[in-house]
Write a structure and sequence with these properties.
Low-confidence stretches: 1-28
Shape: globular
Structural class: alpha/beta
Oligomer: single chain
Helix content: 40-55%
Order of helices and strands: HEHEHEHEEHEHEHEHEHHEHHHHEEH
Number of strands: 12
Mean pLDDT: 92
Radius of gyration: 21 Å
Strand order of the largest sheet: 2-1-3-4-5
Length: about 400
């Protein structure tokens, strides 16, 4: 008797079948293969999913124009927001699928596991959807890089901006896993150094319960002037909507989110998210280059504008491929650490994050932008959701390597 197939499994398999590998064929060497390990159907799908897969395919396409002699394939997997499933997929890709690099990974717990696996197998991990600063701190390694943002950069950008406005008492509602812990830790350190106080932290399971009323009541009763959401995806959307139902913003409390992007603002609506501060390494409407990149994605994403994760996946994959070519494809196929070393040597020169460089600890040193969500009457056109209110240089955004417990040579 055939085994029943869940709708989720069916949709995942169907998506994989429809999104066949993007292949540039050539004689000789087998392809360089990048696996995109994404959330295809869950709470982070709008930050990852089809958009991230498409972004890496665009990177392969652009690299193919530069080096048509080097074949490239892109494959995809859905880890279903379960680190054990993600690690199993990654291990199978490295052992049996001839995948040389894995990209995206929008979950810190999974990223920490894959970073160790990449080192063990001497392959490459390209993290662009992961918040924990520990990837370039105590868990840094020679086989992975960290693009886009991390918890320290988000805290440096948002916490400093809000403290500058004299709002010095905080309460955190945080996802109870690695990302939430990192954000609370790094933001609390900045708040404390500047003379502020953290009046409480309420941690919720991940994925969240849907009903956040008990956590919001704790925040409201704490007397904090700022309630900061250290979560993301659907959990963040639900928190903000329910916070407005409880009247937190109307009562004078400043709501902020360390990790909020335009897909979440779109889900909330400007009426709910208006005035909130957040940080980002990429905004789709920042300039001509970001708008052109967005236009290339839209046919595959049905109008969804890309998050910073997605832009980071494109940039990291393109730089990886260029570094692999510079190192030599035969070596790149067998020695991931050599490619990462070359990534640190070469300047990043794409229109989204370049010019920039990868630090010795694997951290891409990119700028961070402070964003404030527009009010409904300020919106000029579709997806015109934020104002860029400030820029944090990379040297101020990211933790200095000497302070992060990374043991790689500087």
């Amino acid at each position: 008797m055939p085994h029943p197939v869940s709708r989720r499994a069916f949709m995942t398999a169907a998506a994989a079948a429809l999104a066949a590998p993007a292949v540039v064929r050539a004689q000789g060497e087998g392809p360089l293969r990048i696996g995109v390990l994404a959330d295809m159907n869950g709470p982070y799908a709008n930050l990852s999913g089809v958009s991230a897969v498409t972004a890496v395919r665009l990177a392969a396409e652009d690299f193919g124009k530069e080096r048509p002699d080097i074949p490239v394939e892109v494959v995809q997997g859905d880890f279903q927001l379960k680190p054990d499933i993600g690690l199993a997929v990654a291990r199978n890709w490295f052992d049996n699928g001839e995948v040389h690099a894995i990209a995206d990974l929008p979950m810190s717990a999974l990223a920490l596991g894959v970073s160790q696996l990449a080192r063990e197998k001497n392959r490459v991990a390209l993290f662009s959807g992961t918040a924990t600063e520990d990837l370039t701190g105590r868990y840094c390694g020679p086989n992975h890089v960290h693009w886009t943002y991390d918890s320290h950069a988000m805290a440096a950008t948002v916490a400093n901006a809000i403290m500058d406005r004299g709002l010095d008492s905080w309460f955190f509602i945080a996802a109870d896993y690695a990302m939430g812990a990192s954000v609370v830790r790094d933001a609390s350190a900045i708040i404390g150094r500047r003379g502020g106080k953290v009046l409480g932290v309420a941690r919720h399971p991940f994925p969240g319960p849907g009903d956040f009323s008990s956590y919001l009541l704790q925040a409201q009763q704490s007397g904090a002037r700022v309630v900061c959401f250290a979560n993301a995806g659907e959990d963040l959307v639900n928190c903000v909507k329910q916070a407005n139902e409880f009247g937190l913003a109307a009562g004078g409390i400043t709501l902020t989110a360390m990790l909020m992007d335009v897909p979440q603002v779109h889900s909330m609506g400007l009426k709910e998210a208006r005035g909130m501060f957040c940080s980002t390494a990429f905004y789709w409407d920042r300039d001509g280059a970001t708008r052109a990149f967005t236009a290339r994605l839209l046919p595959a994403t049905k109008g969804l504008r890309p998050s910073q994760n997605v832009a980071g996946a494109y940039s990291a994959a393109l730089h990886y491929l260029r570094a692999a070519a510079a190192a030599g494809v035969p070596q790149a196929r067998r020695d991931g650490a050599a490619v990462v070393a070359k990534m640190k040597e070469l300047e990043v020169s794409d229109p989204l994050f370049g010019p920039a460089r990868v630090a010795p600890n694997g951290r891409l040193m990119n700028r961070m932008y402070l964003c404030q969500v527009r009010r409904p009457e300020e919106q000029r056109y579709d997806w015109d959701y934020v104002t860029i209110a400030g820029v944090t240089p990379p040297e101020q955004a990211f933790r200095p390597m000497a302070e992060g417990a990374c043991r790689l040579p500087a």
